[in-house]
Amino acid sequence: MRFTRVLSAALLMAGLAAAPAAADSSPSAGPSKDDGAPTEAGTSFRTATEIEQGRRATANGSAGDYLYWSFPADAGQRPTVEATVKLPETHAAETWRIDVYDGLRRRQACQWGAQTRTAAAGTSSVELACVLRTVRAWSEPWADDPLPGTYYVRLTAVKLPTADLGVPVGAEIRVDSKDMGGAAAVDGSLSEPLVPGIAMTSGQEDNDSGSNAVLSAIEPEDGWSSGWWSDRWVWSGIGAVLAALAGIGGYALTRGSGRPSRVPPGA
After folding, report:
1. HSE on the CB side for 210, CA within 13 Å?
2. pLDDT tens track for 160-212
3. 158-179 as b/e, with b when 16 or more CB fall inside 10 Å?
4. Which helix (DSSP H) or strand (DSSP E) does residue 81 occupy?
5. Which of 175, 191, 201, 260 has the most C-beta neighbours closer than 10 Å?
6. Burial of 260 (0-12, 13-18, 19+ CB in 10 A)
7. pTM of the prediction?
8. Got the DSSP string for 36-76?
9. Which residues have a Cβ under 8 Å from the Cβ of 227 and sit 6 or more positions away?
């Protein structure tokens, strides 16, 4: 009975410890923060409009333009990019596409989502989505894994009739992320996130020039993670506790009741 009480208490403590880890795996979008959201988009990687995760940005443009936004993504996050293009009342069939690039400007594949869609003639809007792979804290140099840093979104029409070139369109974009927790943890981390200006800043600091390059103005709410902590440590600790309790229980069950009273000590 005593062993049962000890085991029950340990399991209760393990459940309480695992609760925060389970909470971390919920989507990090939170309430909408559209107040003061950007109302324009850039026309290249260098002029991409910075947006925060969980905030919907809008922009007006012309069919045939390239529209660019950028957002930060940290290790353990799985970003989802959603875009809506509002079309004029009269137009021919058009195909729209969103592409996402990492801090090294490598195009990242979408796990799923309608990355490319064709709007039939007269359709008022078209909706696009791209769910990226989970951002890793570290990767091999030859790999194409998503890494912490700035990500770029490009929205454009890929098949546009000549008659529709230059017609006004509206765009809405929103980026949310789901925290994947310890399942996505790796042993290692980048020395710096892949954000614009970080290489120049590091070089200037080495030369003691006294001036710094301008970095990307947006980063995750809690800052860039160090890459070593994840809820995998919690579950490892729970496993160690359960293994120790199992060893104690096995010993208690197999040691017996000791020397029988009828057997003399010298026997």
Report:
1. 0
2. 888 899 999 999 999 999 988 766 667 667 778 888 877 665 555 555 544 45
3. eebeeebeeeebebbbbbbbbb
4. strand 77-86
5. 175
6. exposed
7. 0.71
8. T-----BSSSTTPEE--TT-EEEEEEETT--EEEEEEE-TT
9. 75, 137, 138, 188, 189, 190
